[in-house]
Write a structure and sequence with these properties.
Layout lengths: L5 E2 L1 H5 L2 E2 L2 E6 L2 E4 L11 H6 L6 H7 L3 H5 L4 E5 L36 H28 L5 H9 L2 H4 L23 H12 L4 H6 L2 H6 L1 H6 L2 H12 L5 E4 L15 E4 L5 E11 L7 E8 L2 E8 L4 E5 L11 E11 L3 E2 L5 H37 L1 E2 L2 E2 L4 H29 L3 H7 L1 H26 L11 H9 L1 H5 L4 H14 L7
Parallel strand pairs: 1-5, 6-9
Antiparallel strand pairs: 2-3, 3-4, 4-5, 7-8, 8-12, 9-10, 10-13, 11-12, 14-15
Helix pairs in contact: 5-8, 8-13, 13-14, 13-16, 14-16, 16-17, 16-19
């Protein structure tokens, strides 16, 4: 690698005109002589710092990543000086306090994480930084769904299978990061979910097989061997897509209120399905729809392939259309009876069996995204200067950060406690003992998001309500955090569920 040219500060100072304009940013020299017409803030802003050290001015207005974008303008360094701003390289941990959970810090230890967990975190973060992040941010902006290449790459590495959590579907597979399929546990899954959320692209996080995470388990757990053979391999390879279609305009948390219905044909070989579904994640590009329907004596669940009579329309929500949120219409759709999941009229069991895991996954996502916002606020409070001093010097800002940090650390610890319990319980025990715990955990996580979003906006000010620039991640978080408070069960419903579950085991105790 060629050694960069060195300049003295006096040499840089001589280039102080609009057509001959050099600046110093973090001890590095940039030639902006031909950049004035392209500068989003106008040429006059650059002339004000021509020939000078513009480090403080730059970091008051721009994210560090801007320097990488315009690396071509870099011409050398200041003699005897080196850059001081830390640049986090792909795969590396952040050094910002509270930007990482404590188990990733060398000063701390945890009884929950083994070497395989640490190895998976290292390798998966590098994969995300190198293969996912750039595409995620592009798709979040454009609204396009993730590329087939990314889905298939993750399928080849068995990452899609790993996103479903522990189970026999992983046994015998060569898993990413050389994880043994039988050793894979909920902490491994938690790591995968949280590393994907670090990207800071909320719609893309759901687009990248969010529908599969909640739509495929009913097929795995309740589908016939023939149906699983037809559907599961193609989905886990990233060749086909599946979603969960439960919610309707008529029924959200009230699952028993579904109106989409299925009637058996006289010969008993098919169901004829009519009705609609709304807010279906990945629905616009799904090949299969795991669908809750009313049947003669109750609720049932059918796997409906995209076929004649199935129509999907994009719904524009608060986050990016990359997630493929859909309004689904079933118009006399003919579904073979072999596509029934579980038993007819016993579909509520199928639907409810999915909820604990779905809500737990949302908790993983919620906590990690909140932590990203804490990191953003810590960085901004330290680099932003107001009234001649760093923003962090204001006691009110430190108080806000203290509140945000406390909420994130509390949520992470409750999450890890719950994850550990899941690792030591079978499905029946989880249903009995953790339904209330997970419901309350999700409520706590989303209430924490509410508080963190509010404080972050106050710390960032106008930048926190601007989609681009310094506060872009804060703006997105504030605009989209409510998804976790609604999807998978509204906060109020889950709060009530948690308390009702507790009351079931309340002894005859008196004050």
């Amino acid at each position: 690698m060629t050694e960069e040219k060195r300049y003295t500060r006096e040499e840089v100072a001589r280039h102080n005109k609009a057509d001959d304009l050099w600046v110093i940013i973090d001890h590095v020299v940039y030639d902006l002589s031909k950049f004035g017409d392209f500068h989003p803030g106008g040429a006059s802003v650059l002339v004000d710092v021509a020939g000078k050290d513009a480090t403080t001015a730059f970091y008051n207005l721009h994210r560090h990543e801007v320097l990488a974008k315009y690396k071509r303008l870099r011409i050398g360094k200041i003699e005897g000086e080196e850059p001081e701003v830390i640049e986090q390289l792909p795969g590396e941990l952040s050094l910002v306090p509270y930007a990482e959970p404590t188990w990733l810090k060398p000063e701390f230890s945890s009884p929950y994480y083994k070497e395989s967990h640490k190895r998976l975190q290292r390798e998966f973060r590098l994969f995300v930084d190198q293969h996912v992040k750039e595409e995620a941010l592009q798709c979040e902006e454009s609204g396009k769904r993730p590329s087939d290449e990314l889905f298939r790459k993750m399928g080849e590495l068995n990452m899609l299978a790993m996103r479903l959590g522990p189970g026999k579907h992983l046994h015998g597979l060569k898993l990413f990061a050389d994880i043994d399929g039988k050793e894979f546990d909920y902490f491994h899954e938690q790591i995968i979910t949280q590393e994907l959320c670090r990207v800071g692209a909320r719609g893309f996080a759901d687009a990248l097989s969010g529908g599969m995470v909640i739509g495929l388990p009913p097929v795995l757990n309740f589908g016939s061997p023939e149906l699983k053979k037809e559907v599961v391999p193609a989905v886990l390879k990233g060749e086909k897509f599946i979603c969960l279609a439960i919610s309707e305009a008529f029924a959200g948390s009230d699952v028993a209120g579904l109106q989409c219905h299925a009637v058996k044909t006289p010969d008993g070989k098919h169901y004829i399905v009519n009705g609609t579904k709304k807010w279906i994640t990945n629905g616009t590009f799904a090949d299969y729809f795991t669908t809750g329907v009313k049947t003669e004596k109750g609720l049932s669940v059918l796997l409906i392939p995209r076929c004649e009579g199935v129509e999907t329309k994009q719904i524009k929500t608060s986050y990016s259309t990359t997630a493929g949120t859909a309004y689904v219409t079933y118009d006399n759709v003919k579904v073979p009876v072999e596509y029934l999941l579980g038993k007819e009229n016993k579909g509520l069991q199928v639907i409810l069996s999915n909820f604990n895991h779905e809500r737990w996954v949302m908790c993983c996502s919620s906590v990690r995204t909140s932590r990203l916002i804490v990191e953003e606020c810590m960085k901004w409070a330290n680099q932003r200067r107001v009234f001649g001093k760093p923003l962090i010097s204001q006691a009110v800002i430190r108080q806000k950060l203290a509140k945000m940090i406390s909420l994130v650390e509390s949520a992470q610890n409750w999450l890890e406690n719950t994850t550990n319990a899941m690792c030591h319980m079978d499905y029946r025990q989880q249903s009995e003992h953790l339904a209330g715990q997970i419901a309350l955990l999700k409520m706590f996580c989303t209430r924490a998001e509410h508080e963190i979003a509010d404080e972050a906006i106050q710390i960032f000010g106008g930048r926190g309500i601007t989609k681009t620039g310094m506060g872009k991640y804060v703006e997105m978080f504030h605009r989209t955090y409510k998804f976790n408070a609604i999807l998978g069960g509204a906060e109020e419903v889950l709060a009530d569920l948690g308390v009702r579950q507790a009351i079931k085991s309340m002894p005859n105790a008196k004050l």
